[in-house]
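hey can u check if this looks right to u? its 365 residues, i copy pasted from the old doc so theres a chance i mangled smth
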Amino acid sequence: MTARFAWHDDLEAESFPAAAYNALLARLPVCTPFNRLSWLRAMARHLRPGQTLHVLIAWEDARLVLCLPLLHCRERQIGLPLRVVRHLGYPLADRIMLAVEPGQEAVLRDALPHIRRALPHALLQLDEILPTPTSDAGLTAWGKRGSFRWENRLSCLVPEHRVCAKDRDEPAGDLRYELRRARKRSAAIGATPRRERPDAGTMDALLARICAVERSSWKGKQDVGIFRSDSVAAITEALRALAAEDRVRVVLLEHAGRCISYRLGLLEQGRLYDYSLAFLPAYAALGSGRLLLDEWIRWGLDEGWQWIDASRVRRAHSRHLLHERMSGRVEHRRWRFYSCRPSGLVFGLIYGVWQSWRRHVRRSD
């Protein structure tokens, strides 16, 4: 059966098939908070100058089988101004499941010519993609069918913890000692953990509290957190929308009525994504991060969550505390496709030379 492709430029227009999209998400093996329309619509309302939204969808009869919300923009990479295509939400989306019906590798494969015609580009890059048989087969076909150069590489391995009855007991080894020390130090100053389950009416006040913590932390000083100046409006709107759907959880450490540390998580299908954390520098010695991560796990036991998930970590030398309690890891993949347009050929060649030089330097070390 031949799929029917169409383009949309507005996720909130009446013509966009929102109900069919939600039904497609329900058929995916995994759905993340960053696939939700509430998140995507918030991101679409806060595009940066020069970015345009283009949503490619595909139907088989009355069933939606593919939806790719894409950003078309101009970026400067290695000194070159390039046309680039990305998935909507970059760089704030920690993990994306491509919204393609399982088993529809051919539909995903056939999407590439439509993207090339409508969105001329040098580079098409998809970050933080969860691997599945359907997406891997379809994207591999993208690389083999007309891309000048392509790459599928590991972006990061994210630690996850399976919540189980054993978590009601104290952990063994050094972790037990570290937790006891953190509890003792917190108790000595009267700091207490608190759980927050915000809704649309309470999210703004909570966001103001945790945003103040981040801005006073090293993240705020370097303007690198989720509330950094170039993303605060989009992330505030996105979190407010997810809170209205009961998908936001926050654990705080409070001292004298003041929030001194927090962890913010996004809940989806029994999996809590540990999305952001920060603490006030004056309380760095408390070990609040480890204490609040333990609170996540205990909250998960109370509410029946299945997983606590680090959401995203550095590719190398990650210091996320969930490594201490890791049950498994989740792969994130990065796919890059260089077009056969002149700009794609030039950039692909330069990138290939740079990669070769980089590998040579590493071998020399």
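The mean pLDDT is 93.
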